[in-house]
Amino acid sequence: MNDVISQYSVKEQPYYRSVTDEVALYEAAYSVRMPMMLKGPTGCGKTRFVEYMAWKLGKPLITVACNEDMTASDLVGRFLLDASGTRWQDGPLAIAARHGAICYLDEVVEARQDTTVVIHPLTDARRVLPLEKKGELIQAHPDFQLVISYNPGYQSLMKDLKQSTKQRFGALDFNYPDHEIETEIVSHETRVSQDVASKLVSIAERARNLKGHGLDEGISTRMLIYAGSLIASGVDPMSACRMTLVRPITDDPDMRDALDAAVSTFF
Amino acid sequence: MNDVISQYSVKEQPYYRSVTDEVALYEAAYSVRMPMMLKGPTGCGKTRFVEYMAWKLGKPLITVACNEDMTASDLVGRFLLDASGTRWQDGPLAIAARHGAICYLDEVVEARQDTTVVIHPLTDARRVLPLEKKGELIQAHPDFQLVISYNPGYQSLMKDLKQSTKQRFGALDFNYPDHEIETEIVSHETRVSQDVASKLVSIAERARNLKGHGLDEGISTRMLIYAGSLIASGVDPMSACRMTLVRPITDDPDMRDALDAAVSTFF
Amino acid sequence: MNDVISQYSVKEQPYYRSVTDEVALYEAAYSVRMPMMLKGPTGCGKTRFVEYMAWKLGKPLITVACNEDMTASDLVGRFLLDASGTRWQDGPLAIAARHGAICYLDEVVEARQDTTVVIHPLTDARRVLPLEKKGELIQAHPDFQLVISYNPGYQSLMKDLKQSTKQRFGALDFNYPDHEIETEIVSHETRVSQDVASKLVSIAERARNLKGHGLDEGISTRMLIYAGSLIASGVDPMSACRMTLVRPITDDPDMRDALDAAVSTFF
Amino acid sequence: MNDVISQYSVKEQPYYRSVTDEVALYEAAYSVRMPMMLKGPTGCGKTRFVEYMAWKLGKPLITVACNEDMTASDLVGRFLLDASGTRWQDGPLAIAARHGAICYLDEVVEARQDTTVVIHPLTDARRVLPLEKKGELIQAHPDFQLVISYNPGYQSLMKDLKQSTKQRFGALDFNYPDHEIETEIVSHETRVSQDVASKLVSIAERARNLKGHGLDEGISTRMLIYAGSLIASGVDPMSACRMTLVRPITDDPDMRDALDAAVSTFF
Amino acid sequence: MNDVISQYSVKEQPYYRSVTDEVALYEAAYSVRMPMMLKGPTGCGKTRFVEYMAWKLGKPLITVACNEDMTASDLVGRFLLDASGTRWQDGPLAIAARHGAICYLDEVVEARQDTTVVIHPLTDARRVLPLEKKGELIQAHPDFQLVISYNPGYQSLMKDLKQSTKQRFGALDFNYPDHEIETEIVSHETRVSQDVASKLVSIAERARNLKGHGLDEGISTRMLIYAGSLIASGVDPMSACRMTLVRPITDDPDMRDALDAAVSTFF
Amino acid sequence: MNDVISQYSVKEQPYYRSVTDEVALYEAAYSVRMPMMLKGPTGCGKTRFVEYMAWKLGKPLITVACNEDMTASDLVGRFLLDASGTRWQDGPLAIAARHGAICYLDEVVEARQDTTVVIHPLTDARRVLPLEKKGELIQAHPDFQLVISYNPGYQSLMKDLKQSTKQRFGALDFNYPDHEIETEIVSHETRVSQDVASKLVSIAERARNLKGHGLDEGISTRMLIYAGSLIASGVDPMSACRMTLVRPITDDPDMRDALDAAVSTFF
């Protein structure tokens, strides 16, 4: 593994609490280098999972946060001007394909179509990446795998993956973990007691029931970890929850009251 | 055949299972260098067919995944800055026209009009490609042929080929193969038994009947090969099918139930 | 005639079958260097006519396929970076004006307004082309003439030439030729018998009656030549017609049946 | 007058037939360097008038055909890369302001707002042109004058000059000349007899009555000169009129019949 | 004051006829370097006022005509390529902030949001201009002040300043001056008699009553000065008024008649 | 602290009047490097608060005024051309992440999605900033913190932060301070008497009640400071209030009357 790629290796084991058989299924998919799609709501652990798998499989991981202003060149690469003329700079996808990393395109549905189409030749039997501007055809490294994340809650007529893209991926569903597991995660990550962590999870569960009834998204595991870490650093639980669980996600006074009430039920 | 073009030659015979007389018709079309349009749903084998024909005809194949952010320059070429000033870099279409490759524009309907208009002079009696920015007129190599793919399911008022483009192509229809042939393909590609392959095809056939009734597209042959390869690597068939045939194409709970039921009928 | 322009000379007499007095009228228009507009449906022979006239008049011909992503610079020229700094590269319109070619802007209505406005000073008494970026005013060569093509069927509120553009041109109407003449053309171009050619023309005539009743455009002469050349190379007429006359222009099952029936009436 | 500007001097007296007191009024406006707006339909002689005035006043004339893709830089200038780095290239407006030419912006209403706003500081008491990219403030040459043309028929909610632009100009109205004068013009420009010229003018007068009743614009003086020059070169009058007066401006069969009838009334 | 900025000093006292206490209020605002917004209709003297104040305060004045195609870089500056690499070129706002000029953004509401947001850090207690592309933070010169003009008549849902921008400015209202003062201005600027000037003002007053009843804007003081200067150079008053007061602002025949009648009432 | 970053240190203690426990909560959030979102109306002191906290924590502060024309490169950095080829220039976000500053994105909701997505990897456990164009992965400095401001009044369907962005931040609400505290602030900042300051606050309170009833926003603390500083420099209070509290925020005559009446009630 050379210098370009070594900065992307996952040096320490990321904390990941397995929920069902997702680790085994991912390993089987990787064994046939099947492109994978991780589906689930924001903040439920998709990114952590792919980091964990990269660590477990001993492969470098290149993560790209997709967005609607990203061009195909941002993924594939471009020519840069050098003292001696133009020099080709591989983009993250080309680096991954060339050196055998796992390439993780986070929130791929945000990207423009040229981004999603550019991955097609990497996701069928050919496993190639044409660098059209350079006139080179990269044959993907045997270790290369493509992973994308996808939040079904964002799906809309305007922004959805094309069927011809979707069909190129195996898919794993993710969701917020069960009460006990989520409690364990929050406690592990923030060092608050199991009791405090359990209360935080209970608040989140109430909020998740409000999704679609005035809240666009529920409270995520990530937000609970924020609340927990403030509590662990001495902030009183009511203030910590208001600051991390309520204020960030809604400005509606009724919804704030409902969520504040949920917080005071437990603290 | 020089270096630029040799990387595009199809070195090994691609597996292609002929369905009707499409191979002979394509050969006749190629004999008069007629531009060809391959029509059919995603994942039914159009790309594999053109690879097979390129191999059979002994011609290099240059494939371009079209997208709405692709410019005419991406096809035709551009000037790059070099140590000694600007240097012209042929785009894939120019390489194909100059050196006598088959140029395959995949999902051409996704491209902007400047892409589709740029191919006009290559698809009439003149068979030329004007490199306007370079002031050069490429007379196409005698071996050059243009092939485009087209998914009629995508046709819409907003995105369709212009009549003046369509009329420049002969057209071949593609569809998913018959049960027996598709079983043979899945079994050949994944090494699962004929029996398992046949069951997978049966599941696909049920899903294809749901197209237009809640599914945008049916399950493609490519997806069956994904399922088969997971099964062949030891994943249990129910999990393999959920992961490769159901989860990728729908998030609708009812549709998932219907497809899961179809899977459990056979496994 | 120098090197830049000589590649645009029409070396061999193009086959053109005159229909009425269009050749004489064009010659008169050229004698006063009147800009010309050729009107008619796609594939009826406008491009071939202008090639024939260029050959007959002994003038080089520079053809530009217009499209909505083409900029004024694509026509007029631009600065390129060279070893010794920037170098001006004439665009096709500037080459034609400077060296005395006929410049043919195909499907001009597809172009953006900056393309159509750029031709204004070349189409009035001044006959100049200002290269504003270069600060040069090209006085058109005495042999220079501008020709545009225009498909009235495409006319729409969104895309039409401005009146101030239209008024700068003399206009000639084109249409598909009469049965006998079109038969002669198809037979001449494909080497099929007069009998087969006549049948192909009859099929086209039926389809042209369907224009506006489910077909956007009829079957063009160019498509008949495709069908004929497949038949001449041994493909059975039914397959050849399906592949070149029916499949390319419609995916509607009823329309396909109607056209297939027309084909089997004659073959 | 140096080399840059001398190519813009009007060397020969352009033929211009004065209609009323427009020449004297323009001279008075020029004497106070008032910016001028020439209003009138397409092809009625606005461009010829400004050429004539430039000749009469002995000032160079720089004409710019405005369009919606023109940028402020196209008018003002830009940096170009040279062997020794960047070099500033004055745009046509900067050349005119610096060297004292009349700058004529043809069809200014087509331009984007940055074009029209860029002329503001040149059209008030300051008479300056800031080259913001160069950090230079050009104080206009005493001879500089700005002239714009404006076709009221094009006015629409979407495209109109801003009031703050309009108020910076004195305005002269133009229209097609009276029968006698227009006959004199057509005869002078084409060398056809007064009789033939008079007939052509009569045809135009009929068509102009149809403006707004199926025709967007009437037949302009420029079109009559086209017709006359074809007749003068031996084309029969009916064909010449069809080709230059009827076919270019309408594809509507009824309107064509009406115009053809008008032609046969006189020839 | 160095060379870059000295070209922006107002060398001669501009003629400005004070209307109320606007000069004193502006001086107070400048004494605390409060950013100022000058509100009022087009051509009523806002630009002249700021030139006068710059002269009175002895500060250089940099004026920028805003438009919707202007980018933040046009204000702030950009890198240019030089013989020895890139060189930073301050934009007009950066020059003003660095060297202590009054920067006047004319018709700021026309600009895109990046222009208006770029001025925020210059208009609060920080008085800084971040040159993000250069990585420099300009601390505004103590003499620097920002002034913008704003025509309330242009306000629309689509184009209005954001509240967070408006709140950063003190505002002064401007309007056309009273009869006597405006007469004095017209007479002073054109050298016509007080009597003729008074008549011109009376015509303008009639037209201003038509604003909103068929006229978008009334006749401005600037237009009266145009009329006066033509009369002073010998043009008859009726022609001069038609050319400068009526024709430029309306093409509606009824409105032209009404305005022409107003003109003949006085001349 | 090196040169690049030292220019961003807050040298003098900014005046900030604490309202509730926001300082302590922010310190707790900073202690766990939680990204923070400051919510509240324009001009209520969010920017001042973050400056105060940066000073109190002894960290440099890099402020970016977000806008819809800002690209990801404006935040992250870009390659610039140098005498010896291209040179990477860190953007403000990269400088902050690399050197350990607090990065404050003001009015982040104005930015395009690529700006908001670019901050994602900096706001989860990874705390990295991928410089994709440079192929570098910045591991954020331990002192780095991200702060954004957000005006809930601007929220609309078109422009709102994505849930996946919101959930990455703890949030603090800001509003205009209570009468007594705001009086103290105005008096402190302008040196007017407590009495005058109190009157100004009373005027603002009346205007804030009109928010949503004809006023888009109320009168902010910043505007009161403008009014106070004019009064302190000798302008009469009525004129000062009209100029700074009334004219800038409304052109509606009724609303102006209402606000002028409120002013005269107190002065």
SSE blueprint:
The structure is a homohexamer of 267-residue chains.
Chain A: H1 3-6, H2 22-31, E1 36-39, H3 46-57, E2 61-65, H4 72-76, E3 77-82, E4 85-90, H5 92-99, E5 102-106, H6 113-118, E6 128-131, E7 136-139, E8 145-150, H7 163-166, E9 170-173, H8 179-190, H9 194-209, H10 221-232, H11 237-246, H12 253-266
Parallel strand pairs in A: 1-8, 1-9, 2-5, 5-8
Antiparallel strand pairs in A: 3-4, 6-7
Written account of the structure:
The structure is a homohexamer of 267-residue chains. The first copy, chain A, starts with a helix and ends with a helix. The mean pLDDT of chain A is 88. In chain A, α8 crosses α9, α9 runs antiparallel to α10 and α11 packs antiparallel against α12. A five-stranded parallel β-sheet of chain A has the order 2-5-8-1-9, with helices on both faces. Chain A has a two-stranded antiparallel sheet with strand order 3-4. Chain A is elongated and about 65 Å long. The longest helix of chain A is centred in the C-terminal third of the chain and has 16 residues. By secondary structure, chain A is an alpha/beta fold. Chain A is built from twelve helices and nine strands. Chain A folds into two domains: 171 residues, 3-Layer(aba) Sandwich (Rossmann fold), CATH 3.40.50.300; 88 residues. Chains A, B, C, D, E, F: InterPro entries: ATPase_dyneun-rel_AAA (IPR011704), CbbQ/NirQ/NorQ/GpvN (IPR050764), CbbQ_C (IPR013615), P-loop_NTPase (IPR027417). Chains A, B, C, D, E, F: GO terms for molecular function: ATP binding; ATP hydrolysis activity. Chains A, B, C, D, E, F: This is Nitric oxide reductase NorQ protein.
